[in-house]
Amino acid sequence: MKGIRKLSLAFIICLSFGCKQKAVIEEVIIPEKNEVTFFVDNYSDSPIRIRFFRSIADSLEADYYAYQGKDTLYIPIYQPEVVLISHKSIYSDTLYVAKGDSIRVLLPQSGEAFQLSGGKKSISTSSSKQAYLDSLYRFYTISNNKFKPIEINSDFEKINLGFPLTLNKDLLKTNPDAFNLLVEGLLDKLSEQRIEQEGTSGLSDLNELKLDLEKRMAFYRLMSLLRWTKSQEIRSKAFSSDLFTSEFIINSRFGMGYFQNFIIQVVLEGKTDRSRSMEYINYKEAYDKLPNHMPEGELLKLGRETSLFKMVEYKEPYVEISDYLNEYMMTYQDSTFLEEFTEQFLLGYEKQINEKVGLNLLKADGSVIRFQDILIQHKGKVIYIDYWASWCAPCIEAMPYAEALRKEYANEDIVFVYLSSDNDQSAWKKAAEKYGLSNYENSFLSLNHSNSEFIKALQIQSIPRYLIYDANGRLVEKNAPGPKDPSIKEMLEKYIEAQD
Protein backbone atom coordinates (compact mmCIF):
# COMPACT_ATOMS: atom_id res chain seq x y z
CA MET A 1 0.00 0.00 0.00
CA LYS A 2 1.62 3.24 -1.17
CA GLY A 3 2.29 5.96 1.41
CA ILE A 4 2.20 3.65 4.44
CA ARG A 5 4.29 0.81 5.75
CA LYS A 6 2.95 -2.21 7.57
CA LEU A 7 4.46 -3.38 10.82
CA SER A 8 3.45 -6.77 12.25
CA LEU A 9 3.86 -7.05 15.98
CA ALA A 10 3.72 -10.45 17.68
CA PHE A 11 2.36 -10.41 21.20
CA ILE A 12 3.45 -13.71 22.81
CA ILE A 13 1.29 -14.63 25.77
CA CYS A 14 3.41 -16.90 27.83
CA LEU A 15 4.38 -15.03 31.02
CA SER A 16 4.15 -17.34 34.03
CA PHE A 17 1.43 -19.50 32.43
CA GLY A 18 3.84 -21.22 30.04
CA CYS A 19 4.17 -20.94 26.31
CA LYS A 20 1.49 -23.30 25.03
CA GLN A 21 -0.79 -20.51 23.80
CA LYS A 22 -0.48 -19.33 20.15
CA ALA A 23 1.04 -16.00 19.27
CA VAL A 24 -1.46 -13.26 18.48
CA ILE A 25 -0.45 -11.21 15.43
CA GLU A 26 -1.79 -7.69 15.19
CA GLU A 27 -1.17 -5.51 12.15
CA VAL A 28 -0.48 -1.87 12.97
CA ILE A 29 -0.50 0.74 10.19
CA ILE A 30 2.17 3.42 10.68
CA PRO A 31 2.03 6.42 8.33
CA GLU A 32 5.22 6.95 6.36
CA LYS A 33 6.72 10.38 6.92
CA ASN A 34 7.07 12.62 3.89
CA GLU A 35 10.52 13.72 4.92
CA VAL A 36 14.16 12.73 4.95
CA THR A 37 16.21 13.19 8.12
CA PHE A 38 19.83 14.34 8.09
CA PHE A 39 21.90 13.76 11.25
CA VAL A 40 24.93 16.02 10.85
CA ASP A 41 28.19 16.09 12.82
CA ASN A 42 30.13 19.07 11.53
CA TYR A 43 33.48 19.47 13.26
CA SER A 44 34.80 22.01 10.77
CA ASP A 45 34.52 25.78 11.25
CA SER A 46 32.34 26.32 8.14
CA PRO A 47 28.77 25.32 7.27
CA ILE A 48 27.70 22.24 5.32
CA ARG A 49 25.09 22.88 2.63
CA ILE A 50 22.50 20.30 1.56
CA ARG A 51 21.08 21.34 -1.81
CA PHE A 52 17.98 19.77 -3.36
CA PHE A 53 17.07 19.97 -7.04
CA ARG A 54 13.46 21.16 -7.01
CA SER A 55 10.78 21.50 -9.66
CA ILE A 56 9.51 24.79 -11.13
CA ALA A 57 6.24 24.46 -9.21
CA ASP A 58 7.80 23.53 -5.88
CA SER A 59 7.78 26.37 -3.37
CA LEU A 60 9.85 24.49 -0.78
CA GLU A 61 13.19 25.89 0.17
CA ALA A 62 15.91 24.10 -1.83
CA ASP A 63 18.99 24.78 0.34
CA TYR A 64 19.58 23.72 3.95
CA TYR A 65 22.59 24.44 6.16
CA ALA A 66 24.22 22.70 9.10
CA TYR A 67 26.73 24.68 11.09
CA GLN A 68 29.31 23.76 13.72
CA GLY A 69 28.55 20.81 15.97
CA LYS A 70 25.61 18.43 15.85
CA ASP A 71 22.46 19.28 13.94
CA THR A 72 19.34 17.40 12.81
CA LEU A 73 17.48 18.54 9.71
CA TYR A 74 13.99 17.28 8.86
CA ILE A 75 13.42 18.08 5.19
CA PRO A 76 10.03 17.59 3.44
CA ILE A 77 10.21 15.24 0.46
CA TYR A 78 7.48 13.67 -1.70
CA GLN A 79 9.48 11.78 -4.33
CA PRO A 80 13.07 10.54 -4.67
CA GLU A 81 15.46 13.46 -4.96
CA VAL A 82 19.05 14.23 -5.86
CA VAL A 83 20.95 16.06 -3.12
CA LEU A 84 24.36 17.68 -3.28
CA ILE A 85 26.22 17.78 0.05
CA SER A 86 28.90 20.43 -0.05
CA HIS A 87 31.43 22.39 1.99
CA LYS A 88 33.82 25.14 0.99
CA SER A 89 36.97 23.02 1.44
CA ILE A 90 35.69 19.48 0.68
CA TYR A 91 34.74 18.14 -2.73
CA SER A 92 30.97 17.78 -2.96
CA ASP A 93 29.14 14.45 -2.70
CA THR A 94 25.91 13.40 -4.45
CA LEU A 95 23.24 11.23 -2.84
CA TYR A 96 19.90 9.87 -4.03
CA VAL A 97 17.33 9.93 -1.24
CA ALA A 98 13.69 8.93 -0.79
CA LYS A 99 11.08 9.76 1.84
CA GLY A 100 11.68 7.99 5.11
CA ASP A 101 15.47 7.88 4.61
CA SER A 102 17.83 8.73 7.47
CA ILE A 103 21.20 10.09 6.38
CA ARG A 104 24.24 10.52 8.59
CA VAL A 105 26.78 13.14 7.54
CA LEU A 106 30.10 13.35 9.39
CA LEU A 107 32.80 15.89 8.60
CA PRO A 108 35.78 15.51 10.96
CA GLN A 109 37.79 18.58 11.84
CA SER A 110 40.78 17.29 9.86
CA GLY A 111 38.75 15.32 7.32
CA GLU A 112 39.32 15.49 3.58
CA ALA A 113 35.94 13.99 2.64
CA PHE A 114 32.43 13.51 3.99
CA GLN A 115 31.64 10.27 5.78
CA LEU A 116 28.12 9.37 4.65
CA SER A 117 25.71 6.58 5.46
CA GLY A 118 22.14 6.10 4.27
CA GLY A 119 20.55 6.97 0.95
CA LYS A 120 22.05 5.67 -2.30
CA LYS A 121 25.37 6.63 -3.85
CA SER A 122 24.15 5.43 -7.25
CA ILE A 123 21.06 4.08 -8.96
CA SER A 124 20.71 1.32 -11.52
CA THR A 125 23.20 1.17 -14.37
CA SER A 126 22.53 2.92 -17.66
CA SER A 127 20.71 1.18 -20.49
CA SER A 128 22.55 0.20 -23.67
CA LYS A 129 20.89 3.17 -25.40
CA GLN A 130 22.19 5.56 -22.77
CA ALA A 131 25.67 4.02 -22.94
CA TYR A 132 25.58 4.53 -26.75
CA LEU A 133 24.73 8.23 -26.30
CA ASP A 134 27.49 8.63 -23.70
CA SER A 135 30.09 7.16 -26.06
CA LEU A 136 28.93 9.32 -29.00
CA TYR A 137 29.07 12.48 -26.87
CA ARG A 138 32.59 11.65 -25.68
CA PHE A 139 33.55 10.93 -29.30
CA TYR A 140 32.72 14.50 -30.35
CA THR A 141 34.10 16.36 -27.32
CA ILE A 142 37.69 17.03 -26.40
CA SER A 143 39.31 18.39 -23.24
CA ASN A 144 41.12 21.68 -23.58
CA ASN A 145 44.33 20.98 -21.66
CA LYS A 146 45.59 24.51 -22.25
CA PHE A 147 43.39 25.65 -19.38
CA LYS A 148 43.33 24.58 -15.75
CA PRO A 149 40.65 22.13 -14.61
CA ILE A 150 37.41 23.93 -13.79
CA GLU A 151 36.92 24.13 -10.04
CA ILE A 152 33.98 25.89 -8.43
CA ASN A 153 34.72 27.45 -5.05
CA SER A 154 32.33 29.48 -2.93
CA ASP A 155 31.36 29.94 0.70
CA PHE A 156 29.45 26.63 0.55
CA GLU A 157 30.94 24.37 -2.08
CA LYS A 158 33.99 22.99 -3.82
CA ILE A 159 33.40 21.10 -7.08
CA ASN A 160 36.00 19.86 -9.54
CA LEU A 161 34.48 19.69 -13.02
CA GLY A 162 37.72 18.67 -14.74
CA PHE A 163 39.10 20.23 -17.89
CA PRO A 164 36.75 22.39 -19.96
CA LEU A 165 35.21 20.57 -22.92
CA THR A 166 34.78 21.79 -26.45
CA LEU A 167 33.56 20.36 -29.75
CA ASN A 168 35.99 18.41 -31.93
CA LYS A 169 35.28 20.43 -35.07
CA ASP A 170 37.75 18.51 -37.22
CA LEU A 171 35.95 15.27 -36.38
CA LEU A 172 32.60 16.91 -37.11
CA LYS A 173 33.77 17.77 -40.64
CA THR A 174 34.86 14.21 -41.36
CA ASN A 175 32.02 12.40 -39.52
CA PRO A 176 28.86 14.55 -39.75
CA ASP A 177 26.54 11.53 -39.93
CA ALA A 178 27.50 10.25 -36.48
CA PHE A 179 27.06 13.77 -35.10
CA ASN A 180 23.52 13.85 -36.48
CA LEU A 181 22.87 10.48 -34.79
CA LEU A 182 24.06 12.02 -31.50
CA VAL A 183 21.70 14.99 -31.84
CA GLU A 184 18.75 12.80 -32.81
CA GLY A 185 19.50 10.40 -29.95
CA LEU A 186 19.56 13.24 -27.42
CA LEU A 187 16.30 14.62 -28.81
CA ASP A 188 14.71 11.15 -28.59
CA LYS A 189 15.77 10.96 -24.94
CA LEU A 190 13.89 14.20 -24.20
CA SER A 191 10.71 12.60 -25.54
CA GLU A 192 11.21 9.18 -23.96
CA GLN A 193 8.12 8.09 -22.04
CA ARG A 194 7.92 6.14 -18.82
CA ILE A 195 7.04 2.50 -19.46
CA GLU A 196 4.21 1.16 -17.36
CA GLN A 197 5.17 -1.95 -15.40
CA GLU A 198 2.66 -4.74 -14.99
CA GLY A 199 1.01 -4.70 -11.59
CA THR A 200 2.25 -1.20 -10.73
CA SER A 201 1.12 2.33 -11.37
CA GLY A 202 4.32 3.08 -13.28
CA LEU A 203 8.06 2.86 -12.92
CA SER A 204 9.60 2.36 -9.53
CA ASP A 205 10.35 5.72 -7.93
CA LEU A 206 14.12 5.40 -8.35
CA ASN A 207 13.86 4.32 -11.99
CA GLU A 208 11.64 7.33 -12.59
CA LEU A 209 14.34 9.51 -11.06
CA LYS A 210 16.94 7.78 -13.27
CA LEU A 211 14.97 8.63 -16.41
CA ASP A 212 14.55 12.24 -15.27
CA LEU A 213 18.33 12.50 -14.75
CA GLU A 214 19.00 11.04 -18.19
CA LYS A 215 16.61 13.57 -19.75
CA ARG A 216 18.34 16.37 -17.88
CA MET A 217 21.78 15.21 -19.07
CA ALA A 218 20.50 14.98 -22.66
CA PHE A 219 19.10 18.51 -22.49
CA TYR A 220 22.30 20.09 -21.16
CA ARG A 221 24.39 18.18 -23.69
CA LEU A 222 22.17 19.64 -26.40
CA MET A 223 22.73 23.09 -24.88
CA SER A 224 26.51 22.49 -25.13
CA LEU A 225 26.18 21.46 -28.78
CA LEU A 226 24.04 24.53 -29.41
CA ARG A 227 26.64 26.79 -27.79
CA TRP A 228 29.45 25.28 -29.86
CA THR A 229 27.68 25.10 -33.23
CA LYS A 230 25.12 27.96 -33.01
CA SER A 231 22.79 25.58 -34.87
CA GLN A 232 19.28 26.97 -35.30
CA GLU A 233 18.10 23.44 -36.06
CA ILE A 234 19.28 22.15 -32.67
CA ARG A 235 17.69 25.13 -30.93
CA SER A 236 14.31 24.75 -32.61
CA LYS A 237 14.14 20.97 -32.13
CA ALA A 238 15.31 21.05 -28.50
CA PHE A 239 12.81 23.70 -27.44
CA SER A 240 9.91 22.19 -29.37
CA SER A 241 10.41 18.78 -27.72
CA ASP A 242 7.97 17.07 -25.34
CA LEU A 243 10.09 18.45 -22.52
CA PHE A 244 8.41 21.83 -22.98
CA THR A 245 4.79 20.82 -22.67
CA SER A 246 3.30 22.76 -19.77
CA GLU A 247 2.39 19.66 -17.79
CA PHE A 248 5.86 18.12 -18.03
CA ILE A 249 7.91 21.22 -17.31
CA ILE A 250 5.75 22.26 -14.35
CA ASN A 251 5.95 18.81 -12.73
CA SER A 252 9.56 18.05 -13.56
CA ARG A 253 12.16 18.10 -10.79
CA PHE A 254 14.39 20.09 -13.13
CA GLY A 255 11.71 22.26 -14.69
CA MET A 256 13.18 25.55 -13.51
CA GLY A 257 16.48 24.85 -15.26
CA TYR A 258 14.70 23.93 -18.51
CA PHE A 259 12.51 26.99 -18.29
CA GLN A 260 15.35 29.42 -17.64
CA ASN A 261 17.21 28.01 -20.66
CA PHE A 262 14.05 28.55 -22.70
CA ILE A 263 13.94 32.19 -21.62
CA ILE A 264 17.62 32.76 -22.45
CA GLN A 265 17.90 30.76 -25.67
CA VAL A 266 14.46 31.30 -27.20
CA VAL A 267 12.89 34.42 -25.71
CA LEU A 268 16.15 36.41 -25.50
CA GLU A 269 17.75 34.61 -28.47
CA GLY A 270 20.84 33.68 -26.46
CA LYS A 271 21.69 37.29 -25.54
CA THR A 272 23.43 37.81 -22.20
CA ASP A 273 25.74 40.57 -20.96
CA ARG A 274 29.11 39.26 -19.77
CA SER A 275 30.71 42.68 -19.34
CA ARG A 276 29.60 42.95 -15.71
CA SER A 277 31.02 41.26 -12.61
CA MET A 278 28.29 38.61 -12.97
CA GLU A 279 26.57 37.54 -16.16
CA TYR A 280 23.52 39.74 -16.65
CA ILE A 281 20.27 38.46 -18.15
CA ASN A 282 17.63 41.05 -19.01
CA TYR A 283 14.50 39.56 -17.43
CA LYS A 284 12.60 42.81 -18.02
CA GLU A 285 12.96 42.19 -21.74
CA ALA A 286 12.08 38.52 -21.18
CA TYR A 287 8.86 39.51 -19.37
CA ASP A 288 7.86 41.69 -22.33
CA LYS A 289 8.65 39.06 -24.96
CA LEU A 290 7.29 35.91 -23.28
CA PRO A 291 3.76 36.27 -24.81
CA ASN A 292 5.36 36.07 -28.28
CA HIS A 293 6.57 32.53 -27.53
CA MET A 294 3.78 30.85 -25.60
CA PRO A 295 0.00 31.13 -25.38
CA GLU A 296 -1.87 32.45 -22.37
CA GLY A 297 -1.97 29.83 -19.65
CA GLU A 298 -0.20 28.49 -16.58
CA LEU A 299 3.23 28.30 -18.20
CA LEU A 300 3.15 31.94 -19.35
CA LYS A 301 2.04 32.98 -15.87
CA LEU A 302 4.96 31.05 -14.34
CA GLY A 303 7.31 32.64 -16.86
CA ARG A 304 6.25 36.10 -15.78
CA GLU A 305 6.58 35.20 -12.10
CA THR A 306 10.06 33.77 -12.75
CA SER A 307 11.02 36.99 -14.53
CA LEU A 308 9.83 39.10 -11.59
CA PHE A 309 11.88 37.09 -9.09
CA LYS A 310 14.92 37.26 -11.36
CA MET A 311 14.59 41.05 -11.69
CA VAL A 312 15.13 41.28 -7.94
CA GLU A 313 18.04 38.83 -8.08
CA TYR A 314 19.72 41.03 -10.69
CA LYS A 315 19.03 44.10 -8.54
CA GLU A 316 16.86 45.96 -11.04
CA PRO A 317 15.49 49.29 -9.71
CA TYR A 318 12.57 48.71 -7.37
CA VAL A 319 10.46 51.31 -9.16
CA GLU A 320 10.75 49.32 -12.40
CA ILE A 321 10.01 46.04 -10.61
CA SER A 322 6.90 47.67 -9.13
CA ASP A 323 5.73 48.68 -12.61
CA TYR A 324 6.08 45.09 -13.85
CA LEU A 325 4.35 43.78 -10.75
CA ASN A 326 1.43 46.14 -11.34
CA GLU A 327 1.16 44.91 -14.92
CA TYR A 328 1.21 41.30 -13.69
CA MET A 329 -1.57 42.00 -11.18
CA MET A 330 -3.70 43.72 -13.83
CA THR A 331 -3.54 40.47 -15.83
CA TYR A 332 -3.84 37.81 -13.14
CA GLN A 333 -5.24 39.40 -9.95
CA ASP A 334 -3.28 36.76 -8.00
CA SER A 335 -3.34 38.11 -4.44
CA THR A 336 -1.48 35.04 -3.12
CA PHE A 337 1.49 35.69 -5.39
CA LEU A 338 1.37 39.42 -4.61
CA GLU A 339 1.54 38.73 -0.88
CA GLU A 340 4.43 36.28 -1.27
CA PHE A 341 6.38 38.55 -3.60
CA THR A 342 5.83 41.68 -1.53
CA GLU A 343 6.73 39.89 1.68
CA GLN A 344 9.83 38.33 0.21
CA PHE A 345 11.20 41.35 -1.59
CA LEU A 346 9.96 44.28 0.47
CA LEU A 347 8.02 46.15 -2.20
CA GLY A 348 5.69 47.36 0.53
CA TYR A 349 8.54 49.56 1.79
CA GLU A 350 9.25 51.25 -1.54
CA LYS A 351 9.82 54.74 -0.17
CA GLN A 352 12.19 53.56 2.54
CA ILE A 353 14.07 51.35 0.05
CA ASN A 354 14.69 54.15 -2.42
CA GLU A 355 15.60 56.82 0.14
CA LYS A 356 19.21 58.00 -0.08
CA VAL A 357 19.44 59.92 3.19
CA GLY A 358 20.19 57.94 6.34
CA LEU A 359 19.52 54.27 6.91
CA ASN A 360 16.00 52.82 7.21
CA LEU A 361 15.65 49.66 9.30
CA LEU A 362 12.87 47.09 9.35
CA LYS A 363 11.96 45.46 12.65
CA ALA A 364 10.61 41.92 12.98
CA ASP A 365 7.11 43.29 13.68
CA GLY A 366 7.07 45.14 10.34
CA SER A 367 7.62 48.65 11.69
CA VAL A 368 10.42 50.86 10.37
CA ILE A 369 12.86 53.01 12.33
CA ARG A 370 15.90 55.06 11.37
CA PHE A 371 19.46 54.26 12.36
CA GLN A 372 19.74 57.69 13.92
CA ASP A 373 16.94 56.73 16.32
CA ILE A 374 19.06 53.85 17.61
CA LEU A 375 21.96 56.20 18.35
CA ILE A 376 19.61 58.57 20.23
CA GLN A 377 17.87 55.74 22.09
CA HIS A 378 21.16 54.28 23.36
CA LYS A 379 23.08 57.47 24.03
CA GLY A 380 25.38 56.90 26.99
CA LYS A 381 26.18 53.34 25.87
CA VAL A 382 28.75 51.87 23.53
CA ILE A 383 27.14 50.47 20.35
CA TYR A 384 28.69 47.53 18.49
CA ILE A 385 27.26 47.15 14.95
CA ASP A 386 27.32 43.76 13.22
CA TYR A 387 26.57 44.09 9.49
CA TRP A 388 25.70 40.65 8.10
CA ALA A 389 23.40 38.65 5.75
CA SER A 390 21.86 35.19 5.71
CA TRP A 391 23.88 34.17 2.62
CA CYS A 392 27.26 35.31 4.01
CA ALA A 393 29.21 32.29 5.30
CA PRO A 394 31.81 34.28 7.33
CA CYS A 395 28.94 36.22 8.95
CA ILE A 396 27.21 32.98 9.92
CA GLU A 397 30.43 31.42 11.21
CA ALA A 398 30.81 34.38 13.57
CA MET A 399 27.26 34.17 14.99
CA PRO A 400 28.01 31.75 17.88
CA TYR A 401 30.88 34.02 18.94
CA ALA A 402 28.60 37.06 18.62
CA GLU A 403 26.04 35.40 20.90
CA ALA A 404 28.73 34.53 23.47
CA LEU A 405 30.04 38.11 23.38
CA ARG A 406 26.54 39.51 23.83
CA LYS A 407 25.95 37.31 26.87
CA GLU A 408 29.33 38.13 28.41
CA TYR A 409 28.63 41.88 28.28
CA ALA A 410 24.94 41.64 29.15
CA ASN A 411 25.39 43.72 32.34
CA GLU A 412 27.67 46.35 30.80
CA ASP A 413 26.78 49.66 29.15
CA ILE A 414 27.02 48.28 25.66
CA VAL A 415 24.41 47.48 23.02
CA PHE A 416 24.89 44.93 20.22
CA VAL A 417 23.02 45.87 17.05
CA TYR A 418 22.61 43.51 14.08
CA LEU A 419 21.91 44.94 10.62
CA SER A 420 21.15 42.52 7.77
CA SER A 421 21.65 43.52 4.12
CA ASP A 422 19.42 40.71 2.78
CA ASN A 423 17.14 41.52 -0.17
CA ASP A 424 14.85 38.69 0.89
CA GLN A 425 12.87 39.40 4.04
CA SER A 426 11.97 35.74 4.60
CA ALA A 427 15.63 34.69 4.39
CA TRP A 428 16.50 37.32 7.02
CA LYS A 429 13.72 36.14 9.33
CA LYS A 430 14.70 32.46 9.02
CA ALA A 431 18.36 33.19 9.71
CA ALA A 432 17.51 35.53 12.59
CA GLU A 433 15.38 32.80 14.16
CA LYS A 434 18.13 30.19 13.74
CA TYR A 435 20.71 32.39 15.49
CA GLY A 436 18.55 33.63 18.33
CA LEU A 437 17.90 37.10 16.92
CA SER A 438 14.20 36.86 16.04
CA ASN A 439 13.13 38.13 19.46
CA TYR A 440 16.15 40.34 19.99
CA GLU A 441 15.07 43.98 19.97
CA ASN A 442 18.19 45.26 18.19
CA SER A 443 18.03 43.02 15.13
CA PHE A 444 17.02 44.82 11.91
CA LEU A 445 16.88 44.51 8.15
CA SER A 446 18.54 47.38 6.28
CA LEU A 447 15.96 48.49 3.73
CA ASN A 448 17.93 51.00 1.69
CA HIS A 449 21.36 49.38 1.91
CA SER A 450 21.90 49.73 -1.86
CA ASN A 451 20.82 53.38 -2.09
CA SER A 452 21.92 54.88 1.22
CA GLU A 453 24.60 57.59 1.07
CA PHE A 454 25.40 56.61 4.67
CA ILE A 455 26.47 53.13 3.51
CA LYS A 456 28.41 54.55 0.57
CA ALA A 457 30.26 56.97 2.86
CA LEU A 458 31.32 54.07 5.08
CA GLN A 459 32.36 52.10 1.98
CA ILE A 460 30.55 48.97 3.15
CA GLN A 461 31.18 46.98 -0.02
CA SER A 462 31.58 43.58 1.61
CA ILE A 463 30.42 41.85 4.77
CA PRO A 464 30.82 40.98 7.57
CA ARG A 465 31.61 44.48 8.71
CA TYR A 466 31.77 45.70 12.31
CA LEU A 467 31.49 49.27 13.63
CA ILE A 468 31.76 50.80 17.09
CA TYR A 469 30.04 53.98 18.27
CA ASP A 470 31.08 55.50 21.58
CA ALA A 471 28.73 56.67 24.35
CA ASN A 472 28.32 60.05 22.65
CA GLY A 473 27.11 58.50 19.39
CA ARG A 474 30.37 59.11 17.52
CA LEU A 475 31.70 56.51 15.09
CA VAL A 476 35.08 55.61 16.59
CA GLU A 477 35.87 52.33 14.78
CA LYS A 478 34.97 51.98 11.09
CA ASN A 479 36.56 48.54 10.81
CA ALA A 480 36.29 47.01 14.25
CA PRO A 481 37.39 43.42 14.94
CA GLY A 482 34.73 40.73 14.60
CA PRO A 483 33.44 38.70 17.57
CA LYS A 484 35.84 35.82 16.77
CA ASP A 485 38.85 38.13 17.14
CA PRO A 486 40.23 38.04 20.74
CA SER A 487 41.21 41.72 20.46
CA ILE A 488 37.55 42.80 20.35
CA LYS A 489 37.12 42.46 24.11
CA GLU A 490 40.03 44.77 24.87
CA MET A 491 38.66 47.35 22.42
CA LEU A 492 35.13 47.21 23.81
CA GLU A 493 36.37 47.53 27.39
CA LYS A 494 38.41 50.56 26.40
CA TYR A 495 35.30 52.41 25.22
CA ILE A 496 33.17 51.17 28.12
CA GLU A 497 35.73 52.47 30.63
CA ALA A 498 35.90 55.80 28.77
CA GLN A 499 32.30 56.46 29.80
CA ASP A 500 33.08 56.40 33.50
TrEMBL record:
Domain Thioredoxin: start-end pairs: 350-500
Record's keyword terms, sorted: Cytochrome c-type biogenesis, Disulfide bond, Redox-active center
Coiled-coil annotated spans: none
Source organism superkingdom: Bacteria
Predominant place of localization: other
UniProt record, GO biological process: cytochrome complex assembly
Subcellular location: Cell envelope
Database matches in InterPro entries: Redoxin (IPR013740), Thioredoxin-like_sf (IPR036249), Thioredoxin_domain (IPR013766), Thioredoxin_ResA/DsbE_sf (IPR050553)
Gene Ontology MF term list: oxidoreductase activity
Pfam families, per database record: Redoxin
GO annotations of cellular component type: cell envelope
Name this protein carries in UniProt: Thioredoxin domain-containing protein
Record lineage: Bacteria, Pseudomonadati, Bacteroidota, Cytophagia, Cytophagales
